[in-house]
Each structure stands twice: as C-alpha cells, then as structure tokens.
Amino acid sequence: MKHLLLTLSFLVFTMAVQAQEHCDGTRYIEPVFSEIDSTTGISFGQNTTVGGALKNLRMDVYYPAQEFFFRRPLVVLAHGGSFISGNRKQLRLLCHTLAHHGFVAATIDYRLYDDLNQQVDSIIVYDVVVKAASDMKAAVRWFKESAATSNEFGIDSSLIIVGGVSAGAITALQYAYLDTNDYAAGSALDSVIQANGGIRGTSNNLFDFSDDIIGVLNYSGALKEAKWVDPYEPTVFSVHDEFDPVVPYGQDVTTELGTPVEVSGSAAVHEAAQEDGIRSQLITIEGSNGHVSYFLNGPNTADYANVIDSSMRFLEYTVCDRISGSYAPSIKSFTVFPNPATESLQVNAAFPVQTLKLFNLQGNLVRTAEANELEVLGLPKGNYILEVHGKQGELERERVVVF
C-alpha cells in the first residue's frame, strides 16, 4: 500500500510539473531546447494530382530531444513555390526553430500543379488549392490518429496549428476558413470540392478523427474571400511585405498560378478576423516590395528576428489560452445592412449610436454620419471598415463592401 501511495504521489507530481512546463513564461517563447530530434519521410496519405499521377504524401517531423513530455502543441507547415515547385525540406529551419521552442513541427508534401501543358484558369486554381488543403487536413488527421494510439511524438491533439509560406500559407488559410457555409451548392467552387471528395478531401481515410485546429501561421498568404472568416474560427498570425508583387497585401489580384485571381491578402484577413472577434496579429514589412523578404533575406536580419519572436509569442498566447480555457472570441452587438451596399449602410445596434465612421483599407476616413445610416453612394467599389461609436463610449467595427 505504501508503494502504491508513493507511485500515485509521483504520478501526481509528474503531471503537475508537466502542466507547469506548458506555460511557465519561457517555454514556447524562448529556445529552451538545445537538441532536436527528427523523423523524416513519414507517409501520411496519397492522392491523385491534377495531371493524373498518384502522389505519395510524406512529411518530416521535428521535436525536442529526450524530453519526457506528452502534451506538446503541434505546428503543421506547407512550403511555398507558386503551387508548381518547392518541397518540404524548404521549411526545415523553421521547423527546427519551432522545436527549439518546445513545439512538435512537421513540414509536409502536398500535391503541386503538374499539368503544365493545360491552360490555367480559375477553376484549375480552385482545384490545385483545394487539393493542397485536403492534403494538409490528411496530415492533421494522421497526427490525431497517432495521438490516440502510440503518440510517438507526444502531441496534444487539441493544440494543433497549421501554417505555411506563400503558397503554403494560402493552403493553410483555405484550410482554416473555407467551410461548407461559404459557397453555394452547384457553384464552381462547390463542384471542385465535390470532385475532390468533399471539404475534407480523400488523401487518407482517417475520417474518425477531426480536422480541427486552433490557429494559423500565415507568412505572405491570402484567402480567396475575407468574408469566409467567421466568429469562433482559428486565431491567425500574419506577416506580409507591404507592396508584395506576388501575393497581395490587401484585396487585389494575384497571378500566383499564372492566371489572375482576386484574393484577400493578409491585411484583409487580419481586418476580417478582428471584426469577427478572432485574435489576430499582422506584421507589415513596411515599404518592402519583396515577397517573403523577411525569410529570404536570411536569419541574421532584424525583420527575421522580429518575425520569429512575434510568431512564438503569438503561438504561446494561443496555446496557453486554450489550455487555461480563457480564450473566447468576442461577438458584435450590432448588425449592418445591406452588406454589400450600393447606396447606404444602416446599423441596428444594441446600444444608442452616436457616430458612424467609414475607413478605407489604408486607414483613411472617407465618410461620417451622426445617425444610424451612412451614405456610400459614389464611393469606389471595394472593402471598407465601418466604426460604430455609441453614446456611452462603445466602439465596434465591421467589415463592409461597397458594390
């Protein structure tokens, strides 16, 4: 009996130590682990490419060495390359960095566009991105199945973040925010999704395990429609060059796959997330006309150091809030209609409205009204931010579209 009590006491002590290790103000923020282990070439699924080839999907996983800890957060990353080139090895340094900070980090394969003789149009772009997001979901399901069985990487399946660079970030954003409520049955996007086996894809058959994630690392990516971001969806950390010529910083056209497609860049995603009460942070590389300059210029730059430090702090905040149960997205206490609008916007609020202010995406004030209605007739078409000021000091915001 004495030995049993000692054993139980040791287990309770061990669990308490592990709980402290999670969020002690150092882990996840600082590179507390000097040695990193890796397991490479893990197969997590397979599927058919645009060109009809069967692609075996593999990933490399990096994690702190010799650590007795079994509830670690996981970050799943996808590389860049305009969806036509690149490989998972490109993100080895980033995975090492994450592992040094206490995360398990995986860099994955996903299906690239391999039918270069075919004329690219918007439908093919949809198809390529949907395939990539499906492959990332398969990787997450693989980890959740692993966590429920052998758990060889010691992950907590409720603490999974996805992310990527450029095309990989585009993949992660569609994964996080595109769901069945965001497109109409029979639409072009719906047809592409159905042709790929549905919103979860078919890159493996581990459908007993969810695709749920808690956050996104968006390094110079874009979402097809910022309006796809809804309350209670994953948190998002974004970095983007202000004048990025490849993937737009705001609402604009990209030619990432060789054909013009209008997308919502990091600034638009950030604003949409804020309007829906989702924790979001955006780092703008001001004045830069590069693409992912903060990584491509090398690890010995101030921008690189700032991006890595900010990424880790955002991840620590996301993970530790989930562990404590304190994170809850806010909900707006007003509605605005019609949205999109052609002539005026009307606000129905739970508080007395004093002033409406309309800003463009550059932060410039373009219209004001001392009432519940604001005229937008004559304004350029596009996305704006509406501020609703209450008579008792209330201040809330909503993303609106002038059409």
Broad shape: globular
Helix content: 25-40%
Please, what is the CATH homologous superfamily of the largest domain? Alpha/Beta hydrolase fold, catalytic domain
With helices defined by DSSP (H or I, 4 residues minimum), what is the helix count? 8
Q: How many DSSP-defined strands?
A: 18
- The CATH topology of the largest domain comes to Rossmann fold
Distance between the termini: 75 Å
The CATH C-level name of the largest domain is Alpha Beta
- Main beta sheet: 8 strands, mixed
Secondary-structure element string: HEEEHEHEHHEEEEEHEHHEEEEEEE
Computed CA radius of gyration, to the nearest angstrom? 22 Å
What number of domains? 2
- Overall mean pLDDT: 89
Structural class: alpha/beta
Percentage beta strand: 25-35%
User: Which residues sit in consecutive blocks of at least 5 with pLDDT less than 50?
Assistant: 1-20
Second-tier CATH architecture of the largest domain: 3-Layer(aba) Sandwich
